């Protein structure tokens, strides 16, 4: 009797959840994102569908309407102190200002992503596993806490930016599916920050940290890897990492039913039970979910029945392969195989939450805005802008104007980021090469992929000062404070006002190191 009442109540809640969320999603197309917290979170909807969350991770918002605990913990470089980052209100959005003030004038990494479910399956730094071999010791990197700024419901928040080498894990979980038990999971990823490395995953993996054979993991993979399988187009694809294989459908290899999906905020779903699994996905900012595969287990040995071990990974493969990259905002794992209807209601809740890119088009040196940086040296270069080359990784200046090609304009546009090594300074991410930053190496400027390391962060951090020529802004190298971002012979360096390198030449140094912050070309 009590059970029947509970089921009736659960059904009512689920219907109400779907209706409220669908209504909110409909309204969203006409109005700005709501600023109030949802009364229900995705995990309330999964619970009502009788598939409760057994892990709920997010650095941006509460995943239960009643959750009021910490979302994640950061550690700052200046004194190794840690701080939990919580919510603005119960069931609401992250209080990003806590991170901003705690990490001011230094840098911070994300040390713990708390599990909001009652299972306490927190994610922490992954330890080096089987891959790339026993000779390699040490742990994965932790994510820079400032590298994935967004707004959610109009509130500033930070995602988990996984550069290659970054990874989180929990090998000692409670309540996560093992063996052939059914489970579901979704995650929200940045569809523009991907690569083909192995393996940017979120979900169920080996508790040993090793590759324990086919079927020992079941995680969402997101990226452009074609090493095991792929979908149609050029990717990225949502695939299921089932160990020794990224599956886009029933076959190992290409399954054209799994489309390229690259929304700025992409909802990715994998779920699996006895000889049945599915891939689903959609745009986390609007609309519903589509099903890309729904059928039996892959027709390859070892995947039926599954032998899931129940660890949780984020950003890495089951054996800790860590060359993948991506950005994670929120995700959950459930007990039981969620119905499509439950997931559709969760998607409506997600679109109603109001994810938005942190980038604006203001042309100011504010983190999140897009800028172009104009040289001030007359007469050579006043129509020249700082840009990366297309053919190689060098950073140069060249003339850009309204008639320039789209490529030239894109190459000369930067997204201002909080300094990777010091939040009171700045870093510059390429607007057309997400994840790649302006950095010096041997005093020359290049555009390189952030590898998550501290040296890279230092080399990619510049502190703005008044222009050395009295005009505009100069950018002091964070780790070589006597050197400033300079163009010399149309190539970019960090240069001192006199020194041993040709580009330290004192002639025109003040003008060559002074830049105007201009509206973005792209
Ligand atoms: O299944 C793809 C990858 O293969 C897994 O993530 C990893 O454990 C193995 O290297």
Automatic annotation (TrEMBL):
- For the keyword Transmembrane, the answer is no
Query: Which stretches make up the Alpha-L-arabinofuranosidase B catalytic domain?
Result: 42-355
Gene3D superfamilies reported in the protein's UniProt record = 2.60.120.200, 2.80.10.50
- All copies of the Alpha-L-arabinofuranosidase B arabinose-binding domain together span 376-516
Sorted alphabetically, the Gene Ontology BP terms of this entry are: arabinan metabolic process; L-arabinose metabolic process; pectin catabolic process
- Taken from the UniProt record, the cysteine pairs bridged by disulfide bonds within this chain are 43-53, 103-108, 198-199, 425-463
Pfam families from the UniProt entry: AbfB, ArabFuran-catal
Q: Which SUPFAM superfamilies match?
A: AbfB domain, Concanavalin A-like lectins/glucanases
Extract the signal peptide range.
1-37
- InterPro entries recorded for this chain? A-L-arabinofuranosidase_B_cat, ABFB, AbfB_ABD, AbfB_ABD_sf, ConA-like_dom_sf, TAT_signal
Q: Where is the active site?
A: 243, 319
- One function term, GO molecular function aspect: alpha-L-arabinofuranosidase activity
Report keywords, A-Z. Disulfide bond, Glycoprotein, Glycosidase, Hydrolase, Signal
Q: Which family does it belong to?
A: Belongs to the glycosyl hydrolase 54 family.
Q: What name does UniProt use for this protein?
A: Alpha-N-arabinofuranosidase
Source organism of the structure? Streptomyces aquilus
């Amino acid at each position: 009797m009590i059970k029947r009442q509970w089921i009736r109540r659960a059904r009512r809640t689920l219907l109400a959840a779907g209706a409220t969320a669908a209504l909110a999603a409909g309204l969203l197309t006409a109005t700005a994102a709501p600023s109030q917290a949802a009364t229900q979170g995705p995990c309330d909807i999964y619970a009502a569908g009788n598939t409760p969350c057994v892990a709920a991770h997010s650095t941006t918002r509460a995943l239960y309407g009643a959750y009021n605990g910490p979302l994640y913990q950061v550690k700052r470089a200046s004194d190794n102190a840690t701080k939990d980052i919580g919510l603005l209100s119960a069931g609401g959005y992250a209080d990003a200002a806590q991170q901003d003030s705690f990490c001011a004038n230094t840098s911070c990494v994300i040390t713990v992503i708390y599990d909001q479910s009652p299972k306490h399956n927190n994610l922490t730094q992954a330890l080096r596993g089987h891959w790339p071999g026993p000779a390699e010791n040490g742990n994965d990197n932790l994510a820079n806490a400032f590298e994935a700024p967004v707004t959610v419901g109009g509130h500033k928040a930070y995602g988990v930016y996984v550069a290659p080498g970054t990874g989180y894990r929990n090998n000692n979980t409670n309540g996560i599916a093992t063996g052939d038990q059914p489970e579901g999971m979704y995650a929200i990823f940045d569809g523009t920050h991907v690569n083909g490395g192995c393996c940017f995953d979120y979900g169920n993996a080996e508790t040993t940290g090793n590759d324990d054979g086919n079927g020992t993991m079941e995680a969402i993979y997101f990226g452009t890897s074609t090493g095991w399988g792929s979908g149609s187009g050029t990717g990225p694809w949502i695939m299921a990492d089932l160990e020794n294989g990224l599956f886009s459908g029933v076959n190992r290899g290409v399954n054209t039913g799994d489309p390229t999906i690259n929304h700025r905020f992409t909802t990715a779903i994998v779920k699996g039970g006895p000889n049945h699994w599915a891939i689903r996905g959609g745009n986390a900012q609007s609309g519903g979910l589509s099903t890309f595969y729904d059928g039996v287990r892959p027709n390859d040995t070892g995947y039926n029945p599954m032998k899931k071990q129940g660890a949780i990974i984020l950003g890495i493969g089951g054996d800790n392969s860590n060359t993948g990259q991506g950005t994670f905002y929120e995700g959950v794992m459930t007990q039981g195989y969620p119905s499509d209807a439950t997931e559709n209601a969760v998607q409506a809740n997600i679109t109603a939450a109001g994810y938005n890119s942190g980038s604006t088009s203001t042309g100011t040196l504010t983190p999140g805005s897009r800028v172009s940086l104009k040289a001030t040296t007359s007469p050579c270069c006043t129509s020249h802008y700082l840009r990366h080359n297309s053919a190689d990784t060098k950073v140069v200046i060249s003339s850009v104007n309204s008639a320039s090609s789209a490529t030239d304009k894109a190459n000369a546009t930067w997204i201002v980021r909080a300094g990777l090594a010091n939040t009171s300074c700045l870093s510059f991410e390429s607007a057309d090469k997400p994840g790649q930053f302006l950095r010096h190496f041997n005093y020359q400027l290049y555009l390189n992929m952030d590898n998550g390391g501290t040296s890279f962060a230092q080399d990619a951090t510049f502190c703005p000062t008044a222009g050395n020529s009295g005009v505009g802004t100069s950018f002091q190298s964070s780790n070589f404070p006597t050197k400033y971002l300079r163009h010399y012979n149309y190539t970019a360096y960090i240069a001192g006002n006199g020194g041993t390198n040709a580009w330290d030449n004192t002639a025109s140094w003040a003008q060559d190191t002074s830049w105007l912050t201009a509206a973005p070309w792209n």
